[in-house]
Amino acid sequence: MIQKPLIIHPDSRVIYVVEALDKTGKISQRLIQYADLIQAPEQIHTYVLSPYALWTAKAKGISSEELIDFLEENSQNSIPEKLKQEIRKDMEHFGSLTFLIKEDYLILRAETVELIQKIKGLDSIRGKLIPTEDPNILMFLLRYRREIKKVLFEHNLFVKDAIYEWGDELDMRVIPQSLHKYQLLAINHYLNHHHQAGGGGTIIMPPNSGKMIVGLKDNGSIKNIDFNYCRR
Description:
It comes from Heyndrickxia oleronia. This protein has 9 helices and 8 strands. The strands form 2 sheets. The protein has a 4-stranded antiparallel beta sheet with strand order 1-2-4-3. The relative contact order is 0.10. The chain has 3 domains: 6-92, no CATH class; 97-161; 167-232, no CATH class. By secondary structure, the chain is an alpha+beta fold. It has helices at 26-31, 51-59, 64-74, 81-92, 113-120, 123-126, 145-154, 181-193, 211-222, and strands at residues 6-8, 14-18, 36-39, 44-48, 97-102, 105-110, 137-141, 160-161.
């Protein structure tokens, strides 16, 4: 009997990958598209299906059923029905909240009035609201954009930020050079998916992995001057 590499925790969103049963690393590479890597010691790697990881997966065009099928095909144990419901709920949330700009105001548009009411009830939001008659939007001063986005994130409410302003055009060409496979993957993932989340995007890579060249390659492709490099 062939053992499968994934083990799903019965009472949480945690997934374990048995390294010895994923010798090529293909399962881990696939799982990282849906889940956050928490620990990666030898033998057992730990991932979690966080709400934001699932929201991001949907932004890449991955469906909840595709994820569930992947887990069922590669797991030693069955997927709890509760987890399936949580996966569907989190991924269906993508696109339910959108930022827009109207003159000097920030507009938060929601798909349902119920979602608007939930957000209006948050203490950190209530004092910044500007009255509006439209039941499907909330209005704020534009300067609160980052703060509101942070508050929503803390409550697992993720916004499709459609108000990124493109920087000046920059006709740049990066000198051809050999790149590692993981660098090419990072470049292509950004170019293929950044427009689905409003035009922005964040590339997260380990120290000394070549973040700068990845960012420059992306800039060279979109011919745009805006690029923020952060080192933590």
